[in-house]
Design brief:
It comes from Araneus ventricosus (Orbweaver spider). The chain has 5 helices and 3 strands. It has a 3-stranded parallel β-sheet with strand order 1-2-3, with no helix packed on it. The longest helix has 16 residues. Helix 2 links the parallel strand 1 and strand 2.
């Protein structure tokens, strides 16, 4: 993804941005960190080791780095995964049947 999509998007302007990623295991692999060190030295933020050339190193599960984990996903889950009440389900079935009859 980085090589195929990100780098072509950045083109020659890669020094005008700072790339940020979370601490997911695939993002923490040696291969990914080596790629970032070579192509975006001192221009990436994420989990890093001693040999990495990062803009700044952030610890895993940092609320500054992965804000969605601390608010958004829980909020979305509470809104999406709410089972319909029997009355709502009955009304939905009725409305669906009425639309089919039209």
């Amino acid at each position: 993804m980085l090589e195929v999509w990100l780098m072509p998007q950045l083109g020659s302007n890669s020094t005008d941005c700072i790339f940020q990623q979370d601490g997911a295991p695939p993002h923490w692999s040696t291969e990914v960190r080596t790629f970032l060190n070579q192509h975006l030295p001192k221009l990436w933020i994420g989990r890093s080791g001693d040999a990495d050339d990062v803009f700044c190193s952030w610890p895993p599960r940092s609320p500054d780095l992965i804000q969605c984990d601390f608010f958004l996903w829980g909020y979305v889950k509470d809104r999406v995964y709410v089972p319909p009440t029997p009355k709502q389900l009955k009304n939905s079935k009725y409305a669906f049947v009425m639309r089919l009859r039209r």
